[in-house]
Design goal:
With 261 residues, the chain is of the alpha/beta class. The protein folds into two domains: 4-227, P-loop containing nucleotide triphosphate hydrolases (Rossmann fold); 229-261, no CATH class. It has ten helices and nine strands. The protein has helices at 47-54, 72-75, 96-102, 105-108, 116-128, 144-158, 174-189, 204-207, 224-227, 230-237, and strands at residues 7-18, 21-32, 36-40, 62-67, 79-82, 162-166, 193-197, 210-215, 217-223. The strands form two sheets. It has a six-stranded mixed β-sheet with strand order 5-6-7-3-8-9, sandwiched between helices. The chain has a three-stranded antiparallel β-sheet with strand order 2-1-4, covered by helices on one side. The longest helix is centred in the last third of the chain and has 16 residues, at 174-189. The radius of gyration is 19 Å and the shape is globular. Residues 250-261 have low confidence and may be disordered. The protein binds adenosine-5'-diphosphate and magnesium ion.
């Protein structure tokens, strides 16, 4: 077992509740550094909540969270966050460049206005996601895929050591999905840790090298090849897995589903 300071994230006995209803229960998790880590589980499993707890946006009822052996608040500047696109107010009157520069505020300090250097870094990030020509476009005038690219540019501009991305592939076209995957691989190649909430079981094996199966509790976690099994998926999704069971390959055992969605 690696020393705690070498682990990107350690969660111990975490329980989280909204209005007293627990949505995460006794979550224990150790995530290594420098991996592409997928978090997978059904709707309402607590995936977004888990990210928000680490970011300090949702309080814990009990348990501990450590980032590189430090309290998350002490590591916040080194954590990048790409929220679920649908959870953002895209009518907010601001342009693409400003959104990306916001990714730099953490390193700017509160009282300094972004200058030429910040603008340069933001433009470079937009370049990397193929959005440079949209820098002065209002964010309300972007397609879903373009919105997602802007968010990624913002995270890149921040140059974090640990990234949390909430369903970055949701509702994007194939070209954008490719672009995002390449970006994630680039981050990993530079030693960054990227944690991604993902909903497409078909691409889990291809995209990630570490996997967390979550449904209120951690159902399984570890290297993808060990964790991504039909049995674990059935435990995580229950009867709702349906025909997706085959994506885990391997087990010829028939997976029975009991209707549902
Ligand atoms: N702000 C909130 N207030 C009350 N309940 C919430 C809130 N956010 C999420 N929930 C509920 O908590 C559960 C987990 O939500 P979430 O973490 O968004 O799940 P996931 O991202 O896996 O779909 C769901 O039942 C959801 O309805
Ligand atoms: Mg979610």
């Amino acid at each position: 077992m690696a020393a705690e300071s070498e682990l990107a994230l350690v969660v111990r006995d975490l329980t989280v509740a909204y209005q007293r209803r627990p949505v995460l229960k006794d979550v224990n998790l150790s995530l290594p550094e420098g991996r592409l880590i997928g978090i997978v589980g059904p709707n309402g499993a607590g995936k977004s909540t888990l990210m928000k707890v680490v970011l300090g946006m949702v309080p814990r009822l009990s348990g501990e969270v450590w980032v590189w052996g430090r309290p998350p608040a002490a590591a916040r500047q080194e954590i990048g966050y790409v929220p679920q696109r649908t959870a953002v107010d895209w009518d907010f009157p601001t342009d693409v460049l400003d959104v990306v520069m916001m990714g730099r505020y953490g390193t700017l300090g509160l009282l300094r206005w972004p200058g030429a250097r910040e603008r340069e870094l933001a433009m470079a990030a937009l370049e990397r996601v193929g959005m440079a020509e949209y820098a002065r476009r209002q964010i309300s005038q972007l397609s879903g895929g373009q919105q997602q690219r802007v968010f990624l540019a913002r995270a890149l501009a921040q140059d974090a050591r640990l990234y949390f991305m909430d369903e970055p592939f949701a509702g994007v076209d194939a070209a954008t999905e490719r672009a995002i995957v390449n970006l994630l691989r680039g981050l990993k190649a530079r030693g960054r840790t990227v944690v991604v909430v993902h909903h497409d079981l078909q691409t889990v094996r291809e995209y990630f090298d570490w996997l967390v199966l979550l449904n209120v509790r951690v159902m399984a976690a570890g290297p993808v090849e060990r964790v991504f099994t039909a049995e674990n998926l059935t435990r995580t999704y229950g009867g709702r897995l349906g025909s997706l069971a085959h994506v885990a390959g391997a087990s010829p055992a028939p997976l029975r589903t009991s209707g549902g969605d």
